[in-house]
Amino acid sequence: MTTEIYLDGNATTAVLPAAIDAAIDAMGRRFGNPSSTHATGLQAKAMLDQARACAARLLGVGAGRLMFNSGATEGIQTSVLSALVAVRERRARGEAVGDLLVYGATEHKAVPESLAHWNRLLGLNLTLHKLPVDGDGAHDLAHLRHVAGSAALICTMAANNETGVVSDLAGIEAVIRETGTAAYWLVDCVQALGKLSLELAATRIDYAPFSGHKLYAPKGVGMLYVRAGAPFTPLVMGGGQESGQRSGTENMAGIAALGVVLAALERGDTFRTHDELWGFRARLADSLRAALPGVVFNNPFDKALPTTLNFSVPGLSSRELMDVFDAAQVRVSAGSACSSAKAAPSYVLDAMGVPLWRSAGAIRMSFGPLADEATISAACARIERCGAALRAACLIPSERAAVPHDGLLQLGVEGACCWLVLDAASSSCVVIDPLPEMTARIASYVRCQNYRVLAVAGTSAGAGRQPLIEALGGHYVAGPVDQYGWPAAARALTLENGAAATAIDVGAQVLAGMSAGADASRAYLLGTVDGGRLPASAVRFAFSAGPLDEATRAAASAQTLLCPTRDDHNQFCASMTQHSAAILTAEAQRAPADMQLDSAELDEFLRAHPEALLIDVREPYEFAATAAPGPGGRAARSVPLSQIAGQAAEWLRGEQRPLVFFCRSGNRSMKATQCLRRLGHQQSYSLSGGLALAA
Ligand code: PLP
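# pyridoxal-5'-phosphate complex -> structure
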């Protein structure tokens, strides 16, 4: 079984085994409440004091405060609240206070969101002001110099979570000192812990929040440093724990674990050196360059933590990259928040002025200072595997001939979709209703497969096909066409109902263009000719923008599948017997329990139905990147969602074998299951929770 390679250390880390032991001890043998005065409590208190003392030495807090809390988000709240309450008091005393809340453009959302929240709650009416960064992610110090005098609070992170870019804290401090601003200074130190040395009391920093789970301690524990003399207002009041600075019985398991991590940092015998980490990153970067031609790194390595890479690959979305890495069991994250269809650009990369395609397609690969040689070598091998999988699927340019594709391919963008009718034997294809967003994708696919494109046809007249034709170059079989892009040379074909159509051969099949209906839209029928005619029963697919008109319906049969050029609800295709509006409108897509199997039920099901087919509906590059594709290592067939419509016709024909669809999470397989059930295949199921939860 392939093991997971976790390269998402900036999101969270596994807990250090010694820290797990310490947490267990704090919940077991030493479960005491540090506020109790009996011996059990005193033992807990001793551990708490020890952890704090270690942190204080390590961070150089001097006479400043250092309290334990739930993590950096809480630390940021406490800092912002403390600073803003002080600003309000100073203002009430008639002192001149700045009216800007200045924050770095690449700060974690916790900072601007907290600023806006407390500014509103305290009724201060200060103005949030974004401090720009340059192309390398460095704060614009000239801009800071310009606004520092008007600032009430300045927030700048020590290192960025998406790019690892290390801030010039000395430069920021120099500006703060030079301008003599009375602004408070918050530095989010989350990503710096264990990676940068910090001597906090020797700086002008007023507030520095930390989080345990970014450095091998559990989630839900963190620390906040407050400079001696900096204003402080508790966020949580109650029993007076943490010297009244943060009430609530301490998270002793978390603190014990964090204490062990801090002690390891202090001893210096557990974590890798910067040089070793630099070496690891260089090897990962080399593998990425070799596997993914054209890869661009979005973070300047010489100005970033050695544990972070942020990259984009031309022609690939972050969703696709995430999926292929996840299939190869390499856990990375999208450098940007992304929805399933369209990636939202990363505000961090946007602030650095990175072009949109890179900002929307970014991947962050990050590891912690515990990373080891074996993991990095294994990661490099898997990166190579991902590159090969993407090449075979024609998603990145390939010298070698890719695996030939056959059948139907559905390519969608936000509900609109286009269809490719592919014939591997004759290396030819037809594109129906190409979408402008898909031009580059279709062109590189056609080039990689070395297909001849016989027609770029539309269900409506005019518009939108020319860019694809130009991008296809010599792969497009040029010739006169009508306003639907349909070749003038298409031959006449008689349909079973006697109606006339014109047709082109796509390998052994014909694609017949039906004359435009009353709404001037045209439909296309794909089937196999028999004796010079296209019998209705041999029409397998009908492509149309909306419901078929009467003449086209009459030329097809009950077995014909309707392939719409709008598919807002991932229905892929519909049967002729369904009300045609069902293609276009949402139906109640509830997931009846009987459509899903969990992994225990799957074992039972497969024992009872040895003839069942296991179908992987992930994209071909995910299938290819997976070492053991099926749940539990079983053999499975790859039929990606984009090819479900083409395959559905086969599954529906003759005696129906049970189908069990699976994907990573159970989402895509549920869509395939619903499609097949709707088409009348009652023995189709989805593996709930997908490969992620499969044994
Ligand atoms: N600041 C930065 C830079 C982070 O990376 C994170 C974690 O995502 C946070 C703040 C929030 O930390 P926590 O999860 O401890 O609340």
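# post-check
The two ends are 11 Å apart (CA to CA).
The first helix runs from residue 17 to 27.
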